[in-house]
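Aim 2 progress update. The chain analyzed this quarter is reproduced below.
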Amino acid sequence: MSKRNVLFLCTGNSARSQMAEAFLRHYASDIFNAFSAGIDPRGMNPLTVKVMEEVGISLEGQYSKSLREYLGKQLFAYLITVCADAEEKCPSVWPGVQHRLHWKFDDPAAFEGDEEQKLAKFRQVRDEIDAAVKAFVAEARARLSAEAQQNQ
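Predicted structure tokens:
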């Protein structure tokens, strides 16, 4: 079976979508190719890198990208928006997308507070994204296993 492409889309591609891309690559690079992009890319937030390194996941090689980098150029089995803004502004028709999902997470970069409070918010969102990606992967693996059993 060929790997299926998954695009995580957010507003700035600086935190949530970057985390989701890294977690999916970490947990399921054998069945998925993970990508992320933003409607208005703003560069990688340094706190994103920090909280992902805390759980042993490097964002090396990842960078903030525009959805235009992929639109009409890359086919995706899944398009997953991770913020309300991206869900609202994302093109409603994306050629080739088989499944469109919306996972709503708070924007940790918009959180106001001191450095430790901001870090706590980034960690909270990271852990929520981690759980969502794990559930997505578990469901996909169960579906693939069921399909394999039917084909025997």
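The beta strands are 4-10, 32-38, 78-81, 99-102. The chain has one domain: 4-150. These observations will guide the mutagenesis experiments scheduled for the next reporting period.
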